[in-house]
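Amino acid chain:
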Amino acid sequence: MSPSSETQEKPDYGIDAPEAIRRFLSLGSVLLVVQFAMPAISALLPVHAAFALRSTAPALGAMGYLFVATAGLLLWGSRSGKLRLRDKLLDALPWRGDESVLDIGCGHGLMLIGAAKRLTSGKAIGVDVWSEREAGRNRPESALRNARLEQVAGRVEVHTADARELPFDAQSFDLVLSSWTLHNLPQGEQRQRALQEMLRVLKPGGQLLLIDIRHVREYEGFLRAQGLQLLRRSGPHFLFGTPSSCIILRKP
């Protein structure tokens, strides 16, 4: 790839929950097709059956439009909404520029690169298990490509690691981030293990920023029980059809 062609590329932070989008779009389309085909189908049925079938047409149409609209909202959230929310949340943090930042579940690098843009001599490190079920084309190369296109490659690293077993020394990071990740851990004790690991690698006085679509009150309760101070709570932000909430806490 020539330098001139690369400069024309744009960062791609991926489509979140691609399977859910496909399901909503497919089912909505089927329902709309059935609604519009209802007169032709009814003409082939006995009168009583045709009447019963036609009476369901408004409900089928409403559900179809709802599912298609939900797919559209999910796509908007993936392409635009999450970028706006990222900048709003990161701008709310105090930055010196020399921080060491860890982004857990970094995916395509949305929060990771957002943090790196606010650094001068610091470093932003992202970890993920790179599941493509929750985000299409989720792989280390995608995050590194975006970092290069955003001109922060020298301040970014990515690694393969599980949130429950972080490969870093205790008290290594000034800021730990995790966005739309921990809800993928199905059991509460697994989520608590991930939170414990975040606390372990966070420096005293460091800040922890969590965004998720579920369990945010659970995270807050656990972390405050560990002595962290709640600095900010915001949301819900309706980006993905499901409201996302954010908490920012400081480690004593």
Observations:
- The radius of gyration is 22 Å.
